[in-house]
Design brief:
alpha+beta; Gyrase A, domain 2; 3 domains; six-stranded antiparallel barrel; 6 helices; 25 strands
């Protein structure tokens, strides 16, 4: 009799095989029957929004000419920074270190240097992290001087906050010559707070710095004058134009007639050091022509980065008149598969039902007639007519370059 009653009640309950419910949402009736599962009503969605366009305010007129000192355009060969690196241990972490056996092995090796023997199974490496330690050593920096050091986690450490770097040797690429050592507390520009069900992180906490944590042990010997009695001035990145090389050569020759010449690569100026010039005055001789000012050449170059939407233009960028039509197609897809529970006593099976939310948005933009632009200010005005996002502007600039409307070189980061 009770079984017949339960079946009658179950048959009278509404059931929908297409509805979805979690398996655990099943309630019992007071008289022992089973109520049909409650079906969920929410669903996932996806949407792409565009923030309001920022319109820059007009500023002062742009100057086409700019006089800069030679030392801002070139670097003296032989004065380069040297990259050194090492692998070390960070201790004192609050349970945010590595969990691997490699960290335990390095801790055991560190203790062995102090004649302390311990079983690796007795070590807990969560307060220790393996890090890569690196620094840029300037040429000519004397032993005993301090230099900044950078550290970054190698293993699965969650944070280096509050840690201290153990004594670490920094070597050249061969790993044989020690040029500096590093040790001390690490500065992390952020924090990490973690609970059982939530985590808050600010900035990047698995990399940090030691502002004065490095000490030079060996000097990188160098000289501003080569073995053949020349000083080489190599153009800096972004300033390596033929015009700048010619102007630098002319400025030095106006000061010391016949002393400078441009090499065939067009990016280097070679300056002769007089044979009768005392060695202690070589630095003064170099400084005298590095302080000369020249009119720097503007570069017709556009630097773009598709990943971040960055666009940087040089002063000599020009535009020819043209017609541009550009539209965006935005497709958003949200998948939210759900589980369909059978009704009680229905002999049904649990099924996964696909739920898809698909939205397509297409912009209907009209053609834009762009006038020519003879200077950077006019180029900015023309691009503002398009009203596009930075990433769309990058695509437009690339198309204009291929069509000959953009008179500039495009370089990508």
């Amino acid at each position: 009799m009770l079984t017949t009653l339960l079946l009658s009640v179950a048959a009278a309950l509404p059931q929908d095989a297409g509805d979805v419910t979690p398996a655990e949402d099943v309630r019992s009736w007071p008289w022992g029957g089973i109520e049909s599962p409650i079906q969920p009503t929410g669903r996932s969605s996806a949407e792409v929004r565009r923030s309001p366009r920022f319109t820059p305010q007009p500023g002062r007129p742009i100057s086409d000419s700019l006089r800069v000192p030679v030392k801002s355009l070139v670097a003296v060969r032989g004065q380069e920074d040297n990259h050194i690196m090492g692998v070390g241990l960070v201790t004192g972490l609050a349970g945010t270190g590595d969990t691997s056996d490699t960290a335990k092995q390095l801790v055991m090796n560190l203790l062995l240097t102090r004649n302390i023997h311990i079983n690796i199974q007795d070590l807990n490496a969560k307060n220790v992290a393996i890090v890569r330690v690196e620094a840029d050593l300037p040429a000519g920096l004397k032993p005993g001087r301090r230099l900044p050091v950078r550290v970054s986690a190698i293993g699965d450490a969650k944070s280096l906050e509050g840690g201290s770097l153990t004594f670490t040797e920094l070597t050249d690429v061969s790993g044989e010559i020690v040029y500096a050592t590093a040790a001390g507390p690490i500065t992390v520009g952020g924090f990490r707070a973690e609970g059982n069900a939530a985590t808050a992180t600010r900035n990047h906490v698995t990399a940090g710095t030691l502002p004065d944590g490095g000490k030079v042990e060996r000097e990188v010997e160098t000289s501003i004058v080569s073995d053949h009695g020349y000083i080489y001035l190599d153009a800096r990145m972004g300033q390596d134009t033929f015009g700048n090389t010619v102007r630098i050569t002319e400025a030095i020759n106006n000061l010391y007639p016949g002393a400078a010449s441009s090499l065939l690569d067009g990016k280097t100026v070679r300056v002769v050091v007089p044979a009768d010039l005392p060695e202690e005055t070589h630095l003064a001789y170099l400084t005298s022509f590095l302080d000369q000012e020249i009119e720097s050449e503007n570069v017709a170059r556009v630097l773009v980065d598709e990943s971040s939407g960055l666009i940087v233009m040089g002063g000599d960028v020009r535009l020819r008149p043209g017609l541009v039509v550009h539209g965006n197609l935005t497709v958003t897809i949200a998948e939210s598969p759900q589980v369909s529970q059978p009704g009680p006593f229905s002999n049904g099976t649990t099924e996964v039902v696909d739920r898809t939310d698909l939205q397509i948005t297409e912009e209907n933009n009209g053609p834009v007639l762009m006038p020519g632009a003879a200077n950077l200010a006019e180029v900015a005005e023309v691009l503002n007519l398009l009203g596009t996002s930075p990433r769309d502007t990058i695509s437009i600039l690339q198309g204009m370059q291929r069509n000959g409307l953009l008179v500039a070189e495009i370089q990508r980061l």
